[in-house]
Amino acid sequence: MSLDHIVAFLYNVIDFFKKRKIPEFYIERKFLRNNKTSVLKIILSPRGDSVPPTDKILFKRLYRKGYSCLYYYISGSVLSTDPYKTVENFNMVKNQVRFDVSKLKTEYHLERIDIITSSMGAVSACLIANNNDNINNISLIAPGSTLASSLWNGIRTQDLRKIYEEQGVNHEKLKNIWTTIEPKNNIDTLSDKRIFISISKSDKVIPYVFGKELPDLIRNLYPNNISVKENKYLGHYFTVVKYYLFSKELLK
Q1: Nearest to 146 by CA among 97, 187, 181
Q2: What tens digit of pLDDT does each residue of 179-207 get?
Q3: What values do phi and psi take at 114, rounded to 5?
Q4: Cβ atoms within 10 A of the Cβ of 119, count?
Q5: What is the C-alpha to C-alpha distance for residues 185 and 179, in angstroms, rounded to an integer?
Q6: Measuring CA to CA, which residue among 134, 53, 66, 68 is closest to residue 101?
Q7: Closest Cα to residue 69, out of 108, 97, 104, 30?
Q8: Which SS3 state, helix, strand or coil, does residue 102 take?
Q9: What are the Cα distances from residue 5, in Å, to 86, 234, 245?
């Protein structure tokens, strides 16, 4: 059994005992300003019912490093049981963050703005950064090229897959519905940005084939702009743990 299967099993046990009602989609933000820097680090949460501990730790690491930090908690219901609503939700995230970034850049005379995210947060990151001069660098940890196929094949989203199938939405239809928000369809104007991606060959949450496709596509477009780190055994969750808690890559 892989590390991802073990962690996913534990999550499923916790979800079973919590039996919490899924809230309506919402976005929360936390901003800490450091007056000694002109660099803003934005962290976008992945899908989840609460702020991941890894996000809290990375936020503290970045602030202690001397950066201004902006954190967005995007509720787990961004991935809706209504696939059309999912598109609306991700576009709402895009519009909100873009508005905030433009305002903060002007107000605080920011010279560099970086986005950091993990897992399905890559959907929001690519929507925000593509065709956006306000974003300078992007770091994606354990991302995927496609939300639809990652959901369809990932071990943590089989519940939603079953719901979609009951609604008559198969894999091909889901790909059509989500085509405008897919990361691989929102990377065509990133030539002015530095991009860092880390993936794992043993990722079962966002299967490796989709994790690898995204940097491959970006490398074909901007071979000099991208840096990719790949590991064999960490899987999805521990790849995030490695970079959020220990690596200096995200602190640059």
Answers
A1: 181
A2: 999 999 999 999 999 999 999 999 999 99
A3: -115, 145
A4: 26
A5: 7
A6: 134
A7: 30
A8: helix
A9: 26, 12, 21
The b/e string for 82-100 (b: 16+ C-beta within 10 A; e otherwise) is ebeebbebbebbbebbbeb
- pTM check: above 0.90: yes
* Structural tokens at position 31: 């901003």
SS3 135: coil
Who contacts 155 (Cβ-Cβ below 8 Å, separation ≥6)?
4, 5, 8, 204, 205
Residues 144 and 200: beta-carbon distance below 8 Å: no
32-60 pLDDT, tens per residue? 999 999 999 999 999 888 899 999 999 99
What does the DSSP assignment read for 209-235? HHHHHHHHHHHHH-TTTEEEEEESSSH
C-alpha 74/C-alpha 71 separation (Å) is 10
